[in-house]
């Protein structure tokens, strides 16, 4: 593998830069490089003061007028993912594609901090060379993904023809994709369509928000079951006071497939998912719930979201295929605790 050549940046401090910290100064000069990356480069000895040819390794160094710096920025080269013998729950497989169940907690493809133990690592081991070249080195065979802490069905391409065909179906919104979610509250009306554009939150790059100018995002929802939390016995005078909110099991069918679509749409409409660390501000109820319900909610440590249906036209055989999987045990147990008498 050829290692890309590093980039060299140069700059000289002017009057307005006097007294700034080195990391702040460089961040102002080179906005395309994050401040955290610049701090790392300083610590690695990649910042040289010109004229004296001296490494400046302290990010708090105070800038003087006329200070000149040369910054070497090595190209980040991600390691190629390697196959790992991780069991896969495969529901269908042929020469062109496979459909599998991804458990909650598994990352789909390698990323900073998650270079092993991913679905891609497992697929490389399972499929061998058949994934080579499909959708790039980092995401071989991946046509779509679901969040790390969401469980459910995925389809993976094993051939270029399958990848192209499935990608077209995703782009044209002709696939069937349905999720089950446990949410706070009971949507009113109990069925409908949420048509709101989604865009990355400029203040928090981990989050997606409903924003004008975002990508089209359409979710069709339907309440499957109202989950009325069992309440502790209260005195007659307190029956109408301080009652906990209801919860519900909701089906969400995607017309589009944007990042965090179900989570953002439901939260934006006032019905955030139970256990969602990014989009739910609900604290676990501390009164009126039974101990069992309160404990179940407090211990549920992921968003209660499950991709239970996926349907598509086989891109090679043209056969219509639909797959469905029941809720995983953790969501089943959550629902059971909320329904208990």
Poorly predicted regions are 233-242
Note the gap between the termini. 63 Å
Estimate the strand proportion: 25-35%
Count structural domains. 3
Mind telling me the C-alpha Rg? 25 Å
Structural class: alpha+beta
Largest sheet: 9 strands, mixed
Give the CATH H-level superfamily of the largest domain. Answer: Pseudouridine synthase
Helical run tally: 7
Helix content: 10-25%
Shape: globular
Named CATH topology of the largest domain: Pseudouridine synthase
What is the β-strand count?
15
H/E series: EHHEEEEEHEHEEEEEEHHEEH
CATH arch. level architecture of the largest domain: 2-Layer Sandwich
**What is the top-level CATH class of the largest domain?**
Alpha Beta
> What would the average pLDDT be, to the nearest integer?
87
Question: Helix and strand layout, with pairings?
Answer:
Layout: E1 7-12, H1 22-29, H2 35-43, E2 47-49, E3 54-55, E4 68-73, E5 89-93, E6 97-102, H3 119-127, E7 151-157, H4 160-172, E8 176-184, E9 191-195, E10 198-200, E11 208-210, E12 218-227, E13 247-254, H5 261-268, H6 291-299, E14 305-313, E15 320-324, H7 329-339
Parallel strand pairs: 7-14
Antiparallel strand pairs: 1-4, 2-3, 2-4, 5-6, 6-7, 8-13, 8-14, 9-12, 10-11, 12-13, 14-15
Helix pairs in contact: 1-2, 6-7
